[in-house]
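Pasting as-is:
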Amino acid sequence: MRIFIRYSILAIALCIAPCALAASQDIVLGLSSLPSAQGFTYNAAGAHAGVAEAASFTVGGGALTQDTIGEYLGTTGAGLYYAMPGIITAAEPSRLVVTARCLQVQGSSVYPAGQGGLTFAIANGSVQYAFTLTPTSAYVLGGGGWVAASGTWDNTQFAEWTLAYDPPSACRLYRNGTLVSSTSGGAALAVNRLAFGDFTGGANARAEISALNFLQAGAVPAESASWGMVKALFR
């Protein structure tokens, strides 16, 4: 009996130890205050330096509204976005699930279709995985820049988008549960963050986000049909 109890305790300890080391995350963006009041940092970078948060982002009507139309257009070295640093681990699966719509983009010679004006991303310290929306298309970040997902849609209507990362480098994008892109590699970036907003000085966007949820670690499905199904598998 003593031997059984001793080994049972050891088994429990071995089971608990890896769980304690896992960097589990369950982050839900609230819609009653700006993200800067919820642990995200507002960034007005590069040529956008000095642009006030309230000039580009507002909350109300059950959504976070981004409107960077009319801001600087030129190079890619700028941004108006939110970031939560230091929470991503490369060795664990994660899901970034967003319900959003893109109402308008303003492109430039750098990104004529408006790529990067509305972006959602996870970066694990060496690689960034991201997707961007325009009113009719979606693009996924690759080593050479934005790569168009297969399909065109009316993205002026709300849809649920899931960015699914599985180690070591697999990344998939779903729209309302349908796979629209599957890539590997992302783009090199020595930053660790969960981020969203206007990522470039080469495009601007007007958009609304009605839900944003980030999950990391736990059981991950091969394919996910909805946010509810994804979240249930992390419990």
